[in-house]
Protein 1
Amino acid sequence: MNVADVITTNCVMPDPKFEKLWETIIVDPSIKDRMLRSALLSLRLRAALPFETTALHGLILLYGPPGTGKTTLARGLAYQLASLTAKKRARFIEVNPHGLMSAEHGQSQRRVTDLLTEHIPSLVDDGMPTVVLLDEVETMVVARSEASLSANPVDVHRATDAVLTAIDSNTKSLPNLIFVATSNFTGAVDEAFLSRADVAIHVPEPGAEGVLAILKQTLEAMSKPFPALGKLAREKHLEEVAKTLAGFDGRRIRKTVTEGMLGSLDTVIDPGALTLHDLQVAARRVRDSGHIKRNHGGNNGTL
């Protein structure tokens, strides 16, 4: 397998496809502010000072339950970063970590090493500020203390060691490189990797105000082909639907709108006929579905 195949995206910002990503995710503004400031500060300090002074690895960790927008925020970061750099450009690279892992003895370590110490450095050696997304990073850096003896722990250790070695190497040689890692289950991530994160930012499920904003945003976005949904987005009692969905992730909240459309053949044929009552019924159905609300890997919003 060619390690280049695990790179799913490699593009230079500003790219129109990424323009709206940042604003589509409804989170506390402090989360976005901290992400952007952390990336900028890392680029600034690592270019000017030695690692021994800053202790910065160029690694941002986003953690929290699935569906809260971690991956989309990471994808949007490079676009936001571009406008703040000297040349108004930034590169974005996305890696599929699952493609690096292999059941064949020693292959995972070789692939990780080739990707992170050879292939990616060759793509970013022009000095352009670059954000590399490692989504669901627990796939790459399994907690070695929890590795099962039946799951070839030697290879687990070697793959994790390869990631850590690569991060340490790139920290010093490529100060223009920022890794953004996401994790749904930080308990499954190796402690040595967690300790290298310059910042660890929790992305929680939204409260009632956040849910309301997501519902409004979704309905307004759908109102271009179905204008009546714009009026529904401004319906005062939409707040009651939001209260019902408080605590659910953004992905499920958006799908509640389509869940409401599934309530009758009329709204399937004409989604613009969706009513507040349809949404209220759908929200209660989502709330009462026991398979949606889970304990997210014992994370509990802490590291």
Protein 2
Amino acid sequence: MKRTKQTSKHSQHGFSTLELTVVMFMSLIMAAIAVPSYIKVASYLRSVGDLRSLNGVTAQAKMRAAADFTHARTYVDLNANTFHLEVWNKAGNCWQTDGDTANACTAGNSPVVSLSQGVTFGAGGLGVGPTPGTAAVNQAPACRRRVAGVNGGGTNQNTACIEFNSRGIPVDATNAPVATGAIYISDTNSVEAVTVSATGSIQSWLTGASCSGQSCWHAQ
């Protein structure tokens, strides 16, 4: 005699509407808590990544200036939110973008590094820099079309440059050592800076966007 397997009606019941509503409500609460935190962390990682890249280019500019016995600089386009390394081409009497094999002098199609989405050059309204020498928050001076110590040529508007001489010392337009210099980047949550001193020391800094004193800055 063939037996038929029976299943109780109770075991076939699914979730009730109330149970599903509770689960969905809890999921929405968890998402509401997690998403803003994720966005903030992602923004922090992008800005810190840009800070490290900017620090790396500045350190490379210092080394290239000394290695090639010339001048080199970190070039920042404040409007386009890009930066790159330039080395003074003595033969061409012009600045040349590092890694640009197509142009002897920096051109419109020379390669640049772009800041991440949501990160821009600026201090976000912050009033105090990370060191006594940068107490007044200002970007590095505008980039000159000529090498430091050579008159004429003018400057490129909406730019900022940290230029090193052949000894790896940051210099001003007259080729004199500068006490301090800085480039600032920011997003909605934090402000970062790369600073240089008269000795050629390069340092990265980080602080919150709402910070108002030097004690809020932390070396990276």
Protein 3
Amino acid sequence: MTVPLLKIEDLHTYYGHVHALKGVNLEVEEGEIVTLIGANGAGKSTTLRTISGLIRPRQGRIGFDGQLINDLPAHRIVEQGISQAPEGRQVFTTLTVTENLNMGAYTLGGDREAIEENRRRVFDLFPRLEERKNQIGGTLSGGEQQMLTIGRALMARPRILMLDEPSLGLAPMLVKAIFQTIREINARGVTILLVEQNARMALRVADRGYVLQSGEVVLTGSAKNLRQDEMVRRAYLGIH
């Protein structure tokens, strides 16, 4: 039996006394796009932050490629092959596009050849970033900043890319472009764990999904089955 690339078991995470994740279980197979959907405050972003080592779980196991990563610091988790593009873009506003991208390649040390090759891959995916490579990050449009955030996460050559609300605040046309890019990244061999408020688009691009409510997984299944589920249609797709 194959081991999932990412396997989370009975994950409990707290913010102080607030019990944010209450026994979350999920799996991501290599090559999949898996989405987490749910209302604000359901625990979606907390799940990603716990996986990436930014928050320590109080209980549970996080396995990546058959190895436990619970106790690893965040930078070691990136080295293992998990990158996160955070919510709200969070580009370095005073650095150029190229400098922002280089910040994502810190796990490569000073390997200039590898950094250059990774940057070429990012520019191939986002030609707009190459056009803007000497522009200051803070002067980019919202869509360009989102491209830069994703590109920076890809500079570490992750096996899993975790995307936190990539379409947030973008115009509908740009949302479509971002989701096309997510498909393209996946087609290039990167497994994706996607947190997205736009459940309709997320379930269109994903293979499987998990529905979170108040820190618990209440439903899981193929994206197709979730799109047809009555509760999902009512609560997240606006179909009554």
Protein 4
Amino acid sequence: MESKSESIGRLDSDAVHLIVNANDYGYFDGISRGILHAHREGVVSATSILANSEDFERHIEWLDGVPDFHVGVHLNLTYGVPLTRACRGKLTDIGGEFSSAATLLWSLLRRSIGLREIEIEWRAQIRRCIGAGLRPWFLNSQEHVHVLPPLFRIVRQLASEFQIKSIRLPAPEWLRPWSIAAVGRNLFVACLGALNRVAEDVPAPRFLGLARSGRLDRRYFETMLPNLIPGECYELMCHPGIGGFHEHRSARLLDYHDWDLELSALCDPSLPDLLARYNVTVIGYHALQHRLAHNRRIS
């Protein structure tokens, strides 16, 4: 029987290649445990880590038993306590925690925080992951703020500095039924894409999952899979978790996420057959980078 690492690393030129990437590892115990369960028992092949989480060390220890799991850094300016003095008092609320994405945008517009301070914070987050013995395969961010044009330049610089080959490029996804939240996310990401010309030459898998962000279900797979193009590589963003935990304090998080719904969809025993019907192969980031290197050689 082939190992998990073999199954997520295989490339087939006629297949659709799909990275299933779970956001928010380290957020809360229930989320990290749910992500690990979705990797062991489901189709999740990668996860992005919140390096400034309160229980970072303990959650990193849980990764010891899954050496084939590809991890990246979920760069963060909107949740938890900053790692560096550079951002404390600049992007934080009265309690000393990061505030909202709207606060970040306003701070950048009125220049109450500099790009250098954000660079220092994000470098510290990457270094914390590397210092814990992890190899980051990719970078993305909480609430996609890294795609803001001035911040994307920082991300590219840090990716080069730490030899991280992949950066998430979120894209709008217009799937019915539309919700107000989904339309808002799509418009936000579409505007950023139009502004962010610096991202045009960045090789990245095609992005999926924005239309059902926080509430990915079986119906999404049934709608999305028939439209995928053979030979292309995609990244599906997801948010699995085990609910009923006590750590979360934000009503906004509870309104946005149905962690158990996503966990159930990603671990559905019939999902592998559905993927096979459309010739979809779940891969990891090492397979993606092999594919990108091959494409560069023949271009």
